[in-house]
Design brief:
By secondary structure, the chain is mainly alpha-helical. It has two domains: about 1-45; about 45-90, no CATH class. Helix content is about 40%, strand content about 10%. A two-stranded antiparallel ribbon has the order 1-2. A hairpin with a 4-residue loop joins β1 (about 50-55) and β2. Keywords: Membrane, Transmembrane, Transmembrane helix.
Length: about 90
């Protein structure tokens, strides 16, 4: 009988495949669990309306969303006259 053609070699090949399959299954299961947790977290963090930046006479105001303006720290007035913002609705 030629070396490598006995029953032990077949068992070792099967054991190697199953040993390589276990980390794959564990990785997929943990990825699915983390995806589910992220989905539930975002689903529970509901806001009434999406936030929008609206420009008034000389300032830009954040309207809507989950941000409570009373909890934000006070800031000074900007030193630039008319700042350009890319995410506001005029």
């Amino acid at each position: 009988m030629a070396p490598g053609n006995d029953a032990n070699t077949a068992r070792r090949a099967r054991a190697t495949r199953s040993a390589g399959l276990l980390p794959l299954v564990v990785g997929l299961a943990s990825a699915a669990a983390l995806t589910g947790a992220a989905y539930l977290t975002v689903d529970k963090a509901s806001c009434g309306t999406p936030a929008q930046y609206i420009r008034h006479d000389s300032h830009v105001e954040l309207v809507g969303g989950c941000v409570d303006g009373a909890k934000l720290p006070a800031t000074g007035t900007p030193s630039t006259g008319d700042a350009v913002h890319g995410n506001y609705n005029p």
